[in-house]
Amino acid sequence: MDVEEAFKVVGEFGAYQKRAVTVLVLTQLYMACQSMLIVLIGVAPEHESEEASGVRREPQEDGSESIVTEWSLVEQQAYKVSLAGSLFFAGLLVGNLVFGPLSDRVGRRPVYLTGLFFEVLFGYMSAAAPSYEVFAASRLLVGVMNGGIGVVCFVLAQEYVGRSYWAVTGTLTSMMFAVGIALFGALGFVIRPWRRLAAAANSSGVLFLLLSVTLPESPRWLYSQGRTQAAEEVLSFIGRSNGSSSKKLLLQAAKAGKPGGRKLGVLQLVMHPVLRLRTVVLMYVWYACSLVYYGLTLGAGATSGSRFINVAMYGLVELPAYPLCMYFINKHWAGRRKSMAAFLAMAGAACLLTTLLPEGAGPWLSVTSLALLGKLMVSAAFNIAYIYTSELYPTVVRNAGLGVCSMSCRVGGILAPFVPSTRALAASVPFTIFCLSGLSAGCLGLLLPETLQRPAGETLEDLSRPQRSRVLESKALLYEDGQHRSNLK
Fold it and tell me: What gap in Å lies between CA 442 and CA 289, rounded to an integer?
């Protein structure tokens, strides 16, 4: 039997998988706190306006409320706050680029555990930083680890269960990240000194690291590497833990176990015609999702009202997006492709409407309410992009594909903290940028093939199936075949 058939024997989402996925999903709470840290510790307290006008305030005995207070990041130094946020996202980019292919090569589990350990270590370095320079460097290093384990954590949650539950685990992962943002807003309300807040937000990572040590290697990865016996052992362990009384599993030989099969990675995304087309489109989709998502979220602390409530709202507003995802992506008339494109277009439309609002439109039709609507829509699109991308890439290059797409996503994250500064040109410029990004990404997403109720690809040979290719991909395969024939002549 193949891996998918084996999961039907041992249980596609049994008791053991639920426990393992719970650990991975809850880790998103920690990762969300690290991602949003600069939103609260980088905002000047209300009394900071006095300091900006020339009245210096000495740090409190229990620590300053923000890095702005402690290191006087005002006026000419104010850019350093956005720079620290961008350094974190630059780290995410590096982590995605390195950790994704690395986990395809050496395994999901060791890469995930190593990255989580060092993220916790560097997180405490941020909390104890004696200077801005050390703080900025630690945020870069935290970003590298956060970006790396983010991809691997998501893939592990997918590969522990049967394919029919991929949408569930993917949605739970994204949903818990949103909950983490809201909880971080509440934590910031209780703990005001920024060093204590950074340490408290980082401490949950220790718990999740200890819980993750017991997780096994991905049986899908083992199988894709030709390690059939090891995959059988993990699957048998899952079956026993689920209470299955089935006999020893026997998997058929994996195609990826042929010589050279382990050398697949980022290079294959460029060389293979179908993967190349998919990767180009998906990279832009992820970039646009990130730019709009983080652009709206990171601006929460700077909007009117309590910054803690704003951060919590921008987290909680995502939650309705996930039931919507689950409903639409499993309908034959919508599926993954159309749903993602529609949500991206609606996010762009919501941002466009903010630029057309007349003055005095009321609290229910305001820039804030439309921005929250845009956040809801782009959150839905982002969640679908994760699920959809993991289905578009075969197992042998799935982490490499997710890593490259996430790398493109982090470019959007790097730019996001600086988009609000374009208000200097005109108040509508930031939302215009978000609008154009959402609409263009939605249109490009329609070029991708639908994956609903299609078999999951394990090897590159699976991409040659006619039912998995749209017109552009079919042309690419025909071109590759023609080139191959001409080389044989």
Answer: 10
Are the C-beta atoms of 44 and 74 separated by less than 8 Å?
yes
Contact 300, 310 (CB under 8 A): yes
Distance from C-alpha of 133 to C-alpha of 125, rounded to nearest angstrom: 12
Among 182, 177, 174, which residue's Cα sits nearest to residue 381? Answer: 174
Please give the pLDDT value at position 245: 64
What pLDDT was estimated at residue 303? 57
| Placement of tokens 């075969």 in the chain | 394
Q: What is the pLDDT of residues 253-296, one digit of tens each?
A: 655 444 344 445 678 888 888 888 999 999 999 999 999 998 88
Question: How far apart, in whole angstroms, are the C-alpha atoms of residue 358 and residue 343?
Answer: 25
Give, in degrees to the nearest 5, the angle at Cα 138 between 135 and 144.
145
Give the closest residue to 160 by CA, choosing from 222, 227, 220: 220
Could you tell me if 42 and 131 are in contact, meaning their C-beta atoms sit under 8 angstroms apart? no
pLDDT at 18: 93
Q: Which residues contact 309 (CB under 8 A, 6 or more apart)?
A: 185
Side chain identity, residue 25:
V
Which band of pLDDT confidence, cut at 50, 70 and 90, is reported for residue 122? very high
Count how many Cα atoms sit within 13 Å of the Cα of residue 358 in the half-sphere of its side chain: 2
Amino acid at 30: Y
What does the alpha-carbon distance between residue 58 and residue 70 come to, in Å, rounded to a whole number?
A: 8
State how far the Cα of 57 lies from the Cα of 469, in Å rounded to an integer: 64
Query: Which residues in 197-236 are b (16+ Cβ under 10 Å) and which e?
Result: bbbbbbebbeebbebbeebbbbbbbbbbbbbbebbbbbbb
* Three-class SS state of 489: coil
Tokens 């630690």 belong to which residue?
Answer: 138
Q: In this prediction, what percent of the chain has a pLDDT beyond 90? A: 35
Closest CA to 124 of 20, 197, 40: 197
pLDDT tens, 308-358? 888 888 889 989 988 888 889 988 889 999 999 999 999 999 999 988 877
pLDDT for position 489: 43
Per-residue pLDDT tens digits for 178-234: 899 999 999 999 998 999 999 999 999 999 999 999 999 999 888 888 888 888 888
CA distances from 76 to 52, 88, 233 (A): 11, 21, 60
485: exposed, middle or buried (C-beta count within 10 Å: 0-12, 13-18, 19+)? exposed
**Neighbouring C-beta atoms of residue 118, cutoff 10 Å:** 16
Q: What are phi and psi of 125, to 5 degrees?
A: -65, -40
